């Protein structure tokens, strides 16, 4: 129940809707460019994860091999570093207040996902 409440508060006050919309628009752009469809899929994964982060985590996907690693390097160079930096700065800013700490932690949880999204999958935490 507490995860549900935190996720609803995240949507309203933590910026979850804005993050999901941003990642969704990026996914649409990647899908339109055809060659970048794997990046669009990763962006949609980030959109769903940033929409509802409490009670979920990223784990390495079995069978994701070298192509996913190479694509992650491209992602890191082109988009990942500034996405991770924005999540890091937002997370630190939110951790300044006591009420913002859970939202700051959720943003900090998105940093590795923004850096290295391919070859990962979002799963429910027990």
From TrEMBL:
InterPro entries in alphabetical order: Inner_membrane_protein, UCP028777, YccF
GO cellular-component term (any): plasma membrane
Keywords: Membrane, Transmembrane, Transmembrane helix
Domain Inner membrane component: 5-56, 70-120
Family matches, as Pfam families: YccF (PF03733)
Bilayer-crossing regions: 7-25, 31-52, 64-83, 89-108
NCBIfam families: PRK11770.1-2
PANTHER family named among the record's database cross-references: INNER MEMBRANE PROTEIN YCCF
Full protein name: Uncharacterized membrane protein YccF, DUF307 family
Species of the source: Micromonospora inositola
Lineage per the UniProt record: Bacteria, Bacillati, Actinomycetota, Actinomycetes, Micromonosporales
């Amino acid at each position: 129940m507490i995860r549900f409440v935190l996720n609803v508060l995240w949507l309203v006050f933590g910026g979850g809707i804005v993050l999901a919309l941003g990642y969704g628009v990026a996914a649409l752009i990647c899908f339109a460019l055809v060659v970048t469809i794997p990046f669009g899929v990763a962006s949609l994964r980030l959109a769903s994860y940033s929409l509802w982060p409490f009670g979920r985590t990223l784990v390495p996907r079995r069978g994701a091999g070298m192509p996913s690693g190479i694509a992650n390097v491209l992602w890191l160079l082109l988009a990942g570093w500034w996405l991770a930096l924005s999540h890091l700065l937002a997370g630190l800013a939110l951790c300044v207040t006591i009420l913002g700490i859970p939202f700051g932690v959720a943003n900090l949880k998105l940093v590795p996902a923004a850096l290295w999204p391919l070859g990962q999958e979002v799963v429910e935490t027990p």
